[in-house]
Amino acid sequence: MEFVSPEGPQRYAALVRVAARSVVGLDMDGTLSPIVDDPAEARIHAEAPDVLADLARTVAAVAVITGRPARQAVALGRFDAVGDALAADRRTLTIFGQYGAERWSSTDRRVRTPRPPHGLAAFLAQIPALLRESDATDAFVEEKGLGVALHTRRMPDSAAAIARLAGPVTALAERHQLTVEPGRNVLEVRAPGVDKGDAVRAFARESAAEGFLFAGDDLGDLAAYAAVAELREAGLATLLVCSTSTEQSALRELSDLCVPGPDGVIAFLRRLVADVRAAQLA
Ligand SMILES: O=P(O)(O)OC[C@H]1O[C@H](O[C@H]2O[C@H](CO)[C@@H](O)[C@H](O)[C@H]2O)[C@H](O)[C@@H](O)[C@@H]1O
After folding, report:
1. Distance CA 93, CA 101 (A)
2. Where is the signal peptide (predicted)?
3. Helix-strand-coil percent breakdown of the chain, rounded to 5?
4. Nearest CA to ligand 1 atom 4
């Protein structure tokens, strides 16, 4: 394992020691799901459902903390099947969707979701004009119920399109009391006041966690990283794992461990499960 913080090896060992009373939060796109051009074509890593089930039997609780709508994440991740596999062991998989605004659990299988933010409908109505004025009519618009993502990945010069869109999107979002969440070849617009950090704090509190591992890949995961750092200050065993890509490096310097994309995340989680089980037998 390539630890990138000096404390990484000790933090990993401490987390293994308290794993049975620790929780794991995992980002989805770019961490559990390989990045693809069309968001609707994303699929979870083929081994992820089995690994998540094994992990959930090993630690206190597992959550996927994603920008995706919770219902969509459940479908793309085949999380119903993971929940079925966990039911006999009385374990639960939790999904925090839309950056923590939504919640689903494999126990009750219902999505708890707030009302769409005031201002979203007006923002949506102005998107065609905004894209025309920003020379970005080929951007892919993903409506998410509580927000909207403007994707540039399939445009000829994605970075230039993001640069043209960033100012106008931010100005229009602010006019409608919405916030902008930048990501990999995407600008998302959603309600302010909740982020992945809130999901981390809620999950740790409700689980009375003694340890917290989080893995992510993108800017939206920075809030989760900050919340895990707070938990570390409060005395929890923590580990921050970056799923690396050539597209985004913001998490690297904040991480304890870097692994190569979803393949690396899955291999790491398998290793964690094996190390925890070995420690419990010792
Ligand atoms: O928090 P995450 O689980 O990482 O979700 C963030 C957003 O991911 C999706 O977009 C990203 O993945 C797409 C599929 O691989 C890719 O085409 C796109 O360029 C990426 O930005 C998703 O479409 C969004 O709804 C999520 O909020």
Report:
1. 17
2. none
3. 45, 20, 35
4. 29
